[in-house]
Amino acid sequence: MHHSIATHSRIYLxxxxxxxxxxxxxxxxxxxxxxxxxxxxxxxxxxxxxYDFRYWNFSVHEMGLYDVSSEIDLIxxxxxxxxxxxxxxxxxxxxxxxxxxxxPDEAKNYLKSMIxxxxxxxxxxxxxxxxxxxNIQILLLKLMEFLQIGSPFLFLPLWIHxxxxxxxxxxxxxxxxxxxxxxxCGFSFSELDPTFFxxxxxxxxxxxxxxxxxxFYQMVVRNTFxxxxxxxxxxxxxxxxxxxxxxxxxxxxxxxxxxxxxxxNLVTIKDVERVFEELSPEAKVHGHWKLPFLNHLDYxxxxxxxxxxxxxxLAFLNNLK
Length: 321
Known about the structure:
By secondary structure, this protein is an alpha/beta fold. The protein is built from 13 helices and 4 strands. It is 45% helix and 7% strand.
């Protein structure tokens, strides 16, 4: 299970026995939780500190091309070569697309199927502030390079403790946070789960690289799912082309289930439909689910996540056994 950006694998465990990971485990599945580079549970390096700017020199590409293979190797060693079901949400889905498109034969041999919820790959119809951010993002990236800051949450413990204090002192911040989530991910106030919102507000954010964000904004500007653009000279050195190469989604051979939702205005149904259409017939066999009511985060945090997503997903997985 691969998580979205700015969080970690704990997002699959937040709701205890009602969480997605525990639900799958209680139904007989062997569940493995991945943590992307730089997060609290995956921040070690052979010789660099996370405070070193060079530590953060990675994007969606490196996580898909290198990390997924290493994770699969580990799981297969521990499970005597079992075939694996890959589940990704948002960035986790984009990572799955990178891996399975660049290593299609390996992915077909090792994966039984992929389940990609809200795959962050195309943003043509995104209805939030992303469309206004590319120029700001370029300036922000240059500023971070000048300051040698590779991640926005280098001082994460300070953020967590201060946010908890602010939520206790100023409960209205919870409402402000809900509005911000709506602006970024889609308005679905009916799915706001008050039981966990304060916990999520103080625990959701986690480390990620500025380069990952910049990679996504390059995709927004060009309306393509492509490799990182280093500029013509370096692109030619790395890719053999002045322009970054597109990820060959049509090369994917793993049976894939694509999932989107009507209130997700970050990764819209129309943009997810484009991903599905580009898949090969071999990969399209599980189809494209279009869910009602849920926004970009509600697959895991929505009040009715169980009835709208989890129960249907569990039935699908049981049929794959």
